[in-house]
Design a protein that fits this description.
Layout (H helix, E strand, L loop, with lengths): L4 E2 L7 H13 L2 E5 L1 H4 L9 H15 L12 H10 L3 H9 L11 H11 L5 E4 L5 H8 L10 H7 L6 E3 L17 H4 L1 H17 L4 E5 L6 H10 L7 E5 L4 H7 L1 H7 L5 E5 L3 H23 L1 H8 L15 H12 L16 H12 L3 E3 L2 E4 L2 E7 L5 H7 L10 E5 L27 E4 H8 L2
Parallel strand pairs: 1-7, 2-3, 2-5, 3-4, 5-6, 6-7, 10-11, 11-12
Antiparallel strand pairs: 8-9, 9-10
Helix pairs in contact: 4-5, 6-7, 6-14, 8-10, 12-13, 14-16, 14-17, 15-17
């Protein structure tokens, strides 16, 4: 058993990052996400204590001014008052819970989780969060990602993407069936059935997996108990816990989970950093690995032309932010900004990698959208096996002012007109045609003298 601790300000340990990437490559990584993920800016969702305080304040203001003050920080006990009166759904959930506080922009952690689900880098994600920020970020990427509320739904959604299992409810889907107090787990038949289906799914899909736990050590004890019961007998190979809290606090909050993480034959790592930051760093490392594979795919062709080895720097992936790297992955996959990147590994990329290396050899400098060569902005898009005009029509983005030349690597230019020519200016209701010159690789080499 190994323990690695990182301070809040440090980067992710290289060995930990390598193990997590290796687990992704092997299809063994499962994420467990809790409130800590959504508390990072710009989402900044409230903590359990804050939600409890706001529910309490609304309760004493509108219903019972004599409610004991000690309940202000005890969300479960406050919810239990309404459960006993059979008003949990109709009053507490509908009228007191500040659902508006769950509507916030996604953060970089949500973006990373969405990316991991779409590309199936994660074998699955189990979330204790009611919010829909992961789903929303996936939709912003152009992907229809649907959450599951129990194990049976997770099996169905696995045909489309890695499952996102929100085991104790969702703010959008069947809101009254969200879990707020322990009595619901046994007395609410809908919730009890969901939990049992979820336990069955987790017992099957999490066995001998690597668990990446992000912000899950909840202030809500009953949620920790549910998860601990569901993980009984799962026997993970490793547990990587990302949480800013010190070990004594984590152990006190969730003793069952702490015991599981520190079980015999389980490699346990505690990373004391923001979960959103760690996920973003992990996503960035994956994107760089993806683009590194693209560059190496073109290496043999360039070395054959040169009669010598490539310079090492030409094969290094760009040092950019995660969203910029994601856009380059889209271009490498041959999909426009209206669609999501879905591949965990590049498809055939020999011509694409060769095009990149030609520009790098010519001294082009890397930019967030491609390259700059002698003042000309160049974007490289994968058109392998397609007509250039077909790819150009697919990439009709508005406005398309990020490049002077688009190198459509692998595509064939047969001189056909575009299917739809939309003339106009950026900002018009009718979308303008792309102003960049679209060239196949042969034409681009002549134009750019590379």
């Amino acid at each position: 058993m190994a323990k690695i601790r990182r301070t809040k300000g440090g980067g992710l340990d290289a060995a930990v990052r390598a193990r997590l990437l290796a687990s992704m490559e092997a299809g063994r990584l499962v994420l467990l996400c809790g409130a800590g993920l959504s508390m990072a800016p710009p989402s900044s969702l409230p903590s359990a204590w804050t939600v409890a305080a706001r529910c309490y304040d609304r309760y004493v203001m509108s219903i019972d001014p004599a409610c004991p003050q000690e309940l202000r920080g005890d969300l479960e006990s406050l919810a239990e008052i309404f459960a006993k009166e059979d008003m949990l759904g109709s009053v507490f959930i509908d009228a007191l819970v500040p659902w508006e506080d769950f509507v916030r922009p996604p953060n970089v952690g949500h973006a990373a989780v969405a990316d991991f689900l779409i590309t199936r880098l994660a074998a699955g994600v189990v979330s204790a969060n009611y919010d829909t920020l992961i789903e929303r970020r996936a939709q912003e990427y152009g992907f229809d990602l649907l959450a599951s509320l129990d194990g049976d739904e997770a099996k169905v959604q696995a045909r489309k993407h890695a499952p996102l299992l929100k085991f104790h409810g969702c703010s959008v889907r069947e809101r009254r069936a969200t879990v707020w107090t322990a009595s619901q787990l046994t007395e609410d038949r809908v919730i009890a059935a969901r939990i049992e289906k979820t336990k069955t799914w987790m017992a099957h899909h999490l066995r001998e997996s690597d668990l990446l736990v992000v912000g899950f050590w909840s202030d809500w004890s009953y949620l920790n108990t549910v998860l601990a019961e569901a993980l009984t007998g799962v026997a993970p190979l490793s547990v990587t816990l990302v949480d800013l809290a010190p070990e004594d606090v984590l152990q006190a909050k969730a003793p069952e989970l702490w015991t599981l993480a520190n079980s015999e034959n389980v490699r346990f790592t505690h990373v004391q950093r923001s979960g959103a930051e760690v996920l973003d760093e992990l996503r960035r490392a994956f994107s760089q690995a993806y683009l590194r594979k693209v560059l190496h795919a073109g290496r043999a062709a360039l070395e054959s032309e040169l009669g010598a080895e490539c310079e090492a720097g030409w094969l290094d992936p760009p040092d950019l932010g995660s969203e910029e790297l994601y856009d380059l992955r889209r271009d490498a996959e041959g999909v426009p900004a209206t669609a999501a990147a879905t591949l965990r590994n590049p498809g055939p990329s020999e011509v694409l990698g060769y095009a990149h290396l030609l520009l790098r050899r010519a001294g082009a400098s890397q930019t967030p959208v491609g390259y700059d060569l002698a003042g000309r902005r160049i974007r490289v898009v994968n058109g392998s096996g397609m007509l250039l005009q077909t790819v150009q029509d697919r990439f009709r983005e508005t406005p398309f002012e990020v490049a002077d030349i688009v190198v459509c690597a692998g595509a064939t230019d047969v001189g056909l007109p575009l299917n739809v020519v939309r003339e106009g200016r950026p900002g018009d209701i009718i979308r303008p045609s792309a102003s960049a010159a679209w060239l196949d690789l042969s034409a681009a080499r002549r134009e750019l003298d590379v």
